[in-house]
Amino acid sequence: MEVAEVEAEVEKKATATRSRLIVRLAALLVSHSTLVSVVCCLAGLIALLVLPLLAKNTYISENALLPGSANPVLSYQHVTQANNLIMDIMSIADDKQAPDIEIPKLIAKYMEILGAETYHHKFSQPQNQFHPLYFFSSSPNSPPTLANLSYGTSTVGIIRAPRGDGKEAIVLVSPYNTQNAGGIDASASASSIGLAFSVFSLLSRATWLAKDIIWVASDSRFGDHTSVSAWLNDYHNPNFIGDASSTRIFKRAGTMACGIVFKVVEKERREKYEDRDVVTLYAEASNGQMPNLDLLNVVHYLAVHRQGIRVRIGMFGGLVKSHLVRVLGEVMQQVGRFARSLNPDWRFEMPSSEYVEGTATLASSIYSQALGVPTGPHGAFRDYQVDAVTLELSPRFSLKNEHTRLAFLLKGGRLIEGTVRSVNNLLEKFHQSFFLYFLTAPNKFVSVGVYMIPFAFLVAPLPIIAASLFNLTSNRNPWRWLHTAKPLLITHTWSVVVTLLPFYISKISDLPSTHCMLTWAGGSLMALVILYIVFGSPYSKHVEWRLLKAVMIASVSIGLCLMSIINFATAQIGALFVVPMCLFALPIRVKTNNSLIRSMVMTCNLVMAVLGFPVTAVALMQGVIKGFGTVSILEFWDSMKFLWGWNSATYLYLVLVHLPCWLLFLHILFHPCR
Amino acid sequence: MGLFKSVNQLGAWGHFKILGPIIIYASVLSVFPLGSSLWFLDGERFTSGPLTGGGVMASHTFLSLLLFYLYSFHLLRPIYCSFGSNGFETTSVPKEEEFSEELLLKPLPDYKVLAHFHFTSISPPSSSNGKHHHLFPKSIAQLVKKYKIRELELSFTQGRWNYDRWGASDPLSTANGKPPGVELWALFDIPTKEEIDATWRNLTHSLSGLFCASINFLESSTSYSAPLWGFLPNNGDLRYGALPREAVCTENLTPWLKLLPCRDKAGIASLLDRPSIYRGHYHSQRLKLRSDGLNGIVIEQTLSVVLQPIDRTSWSMHQLFKKSLTGKCALAKSSKVFLEIERSLVSQNENILELVGEADMVTNDQRDHSTIYQYNVERYSEHEALDIRVNWKKLLQVSFLQAPLHASRFLMGSGNERGSIAISLQSARNSTKGLYDNSKNCFTRVVILQVVPWYVKVYYHTLRIYVDGAIRDAKDVVEKINVTPSEDKVSPGTLEMMLQFPCGMMSAALILDFDKGFLHIDEYPPDANQGFDIPSALVSFPDFISRRIYPDSISSPLLQSYKGRNIVKSYTEVLLVPLTTPDFSMPYNVITFTCTVLALYFGSMVNVLRRRVSEEERLAKSKDKRKPGLIPLLISKISNKVRGIKEDSANQSQSSEPILGPKVVFKVVLIALIAVLGHYFFNSS
């Protein structure tokens, strides 16, 4: 490196002694690329760790929402009516032979008493088809085939706003499971319906409504998400061909303003004693999309400040117990304390416990966004550009007791009433607050302007390194990088083949997932060999390893930047893996003076060659988050299946950006260095 | 516009009272133009002339004027008579202006009550008494005269008419169902298209001033259309426009009431208690006028409200309106209250309904669809107010007469790029069994009028028609079609379509694809970004006539209008299209960003253009001998320090050692350390 830098210095002096300042600065950066990259990467890591400290408190940005400005009017009368419904559902679940037919009928009957327009929506389980390039179009429009499959029945009721013009609607979704109607959480499942009914009965008499209210009592026998997404698909893209009776009865209520999904979950054994009812918010939709922060703020404000319900969001419990994070927390606390003692205005001191919790929550937030898989039925709404959130309410006391159930329904109902009222106040679309954010606590967020900094730091050295490597090559032809186009082309062609292979594998038959995995791996290997035979060896005479590395870094930085636009969190986590690979890549056969540094770099390289392989990288990621006991490399096929089932762009990132990067890394590692 | 407003505020009737004698005098003068300077009424403008003219008038002797006046009437009498005998309907053309007020109450199946106020003013052909009116609102007469209006209807509506429950094919619901917001249409008696457009623009402004509403937004050619037969068959002299977002409130009601001779001070209009009527579930206030040379001008002012009684099983007029009806408007020719009970509500059991209060007359219509109870208001006084009370003994869930097809409209697709409009027609066969037979030659005709703003770019060739779950060729279904494609920023797209469906059809759907356009920055409305509205489509059924014929013994303009051949029609919902909207609240960011980019771009451009290569090289050569600048020197110094490379060039070390020697660095670090410690010490103490 030393020699190269001197060379560059000389070259710089020779050609651009008196060039402009900006060029000279760039040249300076390039000539000190090692230093710059080390500093930038460290800064990126530190910035990532400091993110919980930089989180701001949330605030309600849209004044028109006016949360909590009206007193809730949901009364015991509504709740007792709802309780009757719950009792009826429970008795049907216990007695009747076919609860999946009787319960929707019962709900529809109750809705009709309130004067709502009702209908049943039938849907079947969608086939989990592989659409490698479908992640942009979230609604594959396949006609439902109800004939031979079992189907679920959602019950839908619509209240027309008395003086409204019917242009907009608020959707309430309460999932319940008819298959498991007599099961353990039957009372909780019925309570979700009861909760929805109490709010619905209040709204059916409300004179202040400006938007229509749609209540979807969705049948969650195929999962919560399936029923909601099937209903939304029929709402937005109805199928007019074939049996017209289902489209005939389908009723609509204008453009959706907001979706609120809520379900009651009774925790069997709590880890610790809860002194309050708890509502857990789920907000992440597909490909890292989030609902407007105002929607979460409204729910949080009403829950905490009006109803006294504790608000939770997803958090990785493993990280809270992790010693590393605790030590980091202590360090941060000390640093904050020291900074504050230097200048009392620097108030970024944070108790270490708070930091630990913030980190665990932030990690969960980043991970759920990076996975690109919605965390609940609200994800289906986001596919149609509707802001939605899932509230999971868990009561403090058992729901079996009627008194505690009534009190719980009253509290939860008032929370939903308040939220509906706020959204109803809104004259325009949600636009005021943030759409791009991570949460570090229910009332703390990191906005896009802040969380982009670590990523920027991580990606910034890549072009500089590429430029410096390009300068260091012995060939002086400005078009010399074209020689490396062939290995790059081979790698990327291969990655496209690997992307598409599962489509054909999944078509074969019902192979067990390990077989599929092996077929995929074998097919990929074969494809690589064929490509080499067709195009010839990647190590031709002109391909210097520095040139190859420069081109690899350039292609990776383009891939990362593209991914950061599609799903930022994926790019963020990906950068943590890919950037070290790009920086450290060094052929085994290269000769250097300092043997200590060389051996260290080589060790790092070998470790990264193993860990950077997408399969192990995914396993590592899951291990860090969920604990290593549960992770198995052979489950890779299943986790990939999961990703493409949700049309997640993370799959594309893994195979089209990460995998070629890893392969090029191996190419460099085994470069002959002639 | 302002003039009309002022006239309106003073009130036509008030004017007449105050200025009555003067106006009579003026009419004399205008009938016999003497060429004098006493013209103070110039046809359209009612200037402040009367008062100044009064001074001039004083010079004449009053007696001679009176004689003149009497003589003029004597001369004109034969003309009046000839007019009367030549009239088309001699009974309906009164010699004098007439006003009648009526109220129709109708219980609806979902325990709500429809209150339909109906006020009719008739003005005989204007030549009978010149430009002067006793009862008729002068502002309207002036409007009709100036803009040569043959027919006009203006409606202000809030809420939606529930076609499913409140009926769709009886005359009342056909007339009552109006789209939310403002709807205005007018037929003009003007030959050329350009003149009609110009007149329409003026008309919208006049009405805007008259009714305190933003009807003037209909002035722009992008907001109104000229359907040829989809709305009403015409020769291109019809203009139709709708403003779905217009809010309706008392400020629109007050000017409307001022057109009535008694306003809301007496008579049936005194029931209009603002809080009660605006609490209703549906509120539609209309003004309809017809004018021709034979019948003069007829205004129908109607107000329909659907109210929810507090006690669902028993209500009375007093409970509904919080006011009592104590007598008729003294100027009204007739003042009646009707209670219409649909047959389907009572047919099962006569005892289900109990009426308190004795009706003056009870009749059924010819087909026995409904029963009318008539109450004459003049019988009642302050001591004995008219208060109709209805008690339900049992609550029934029935629905009123439905239209043959129930129409609804919705948007398909999502995203900001494209979408589709779907109009779905559902057979309401259960309720109109008698109208159908399943023979092959039976067809139902449906006319659809759809006006779409230009920024929703509809591709009319994508029209797809599905009948009972199968796609049908447009040729087989469409009988007649008239498409006026939209022109960007000039005119909206209009689709008029006559379709023929087999009678046995259960459901049909029409799909039209569209692209969402981009608006210029100043075309965005200043209000909140909710999205953009597509006005209601009108679906009418020309084969179905809604009429109810009552015996002639009831003379009532309201029931008379029931006899007309009204086509059954229904309006669909208003649609909300979200368009791409820039975040206008962030111009600052945009400006900063653009300015930075521009500055960088122009800076480097100017730099490149200004520079001369040969001169540059010469300068570089001469500069090589001189010292380098301070900043580059510092940077190279620091970088060298960091990298630990010893400086080898002698000339650099000579010049830089005094500036950045190790001593200097040490001193700087020391001072900084002292400063930090001092700060820490002072703050902690």
From TrEMBL, chain A:
BP GO annotations: attachment of GPI anchor to protein
Keywords carried by this UniProt record: Membrane, Transmembrane, Transmembrane helix
InterPro entries named among the record's database cross-references: Gaa1 (IPR007246)
GO cellular component assignments: GPI-anchor transamidase complex
Transmembrane segments: 21-54, 448-472, 484-505, 517-535, 547-566, 572-590, 602-625, 650-670
Superkingdom as given in the UniProt entry: Eukaryota
Record-given protein name: GPI transamidase component family protein / Gaa1-like family protein
UniProt source species: Rhynchospora pubera
UniProtKB/TrEMBL annotation, chain B:
Family annotation (Pfam families): Gpi16
InterPro entries, per the entry: PIG-T
Assigned keywords, A-Z: Membrane, Transmembrane, Transmembrane helix
Biological process annotations from GO: attachment of GPI anchor to protein
TM spans (from-to): 22-41, 53-71, 588-609, 664-682
GO cellular component annotations of the record: GPI-anchor transamidase complex
PANTHER family referenced in this protein's UniProt entry, alphabetically: GPI TRANSAMIDASE COMPONENT PIG-T (PTHR12959:SF11), GPI TRANSAMIDASE COMPONENT PIG-T-RELATED (PTHR12959)
Protein name, entry field: GPI transamidase component GPI16
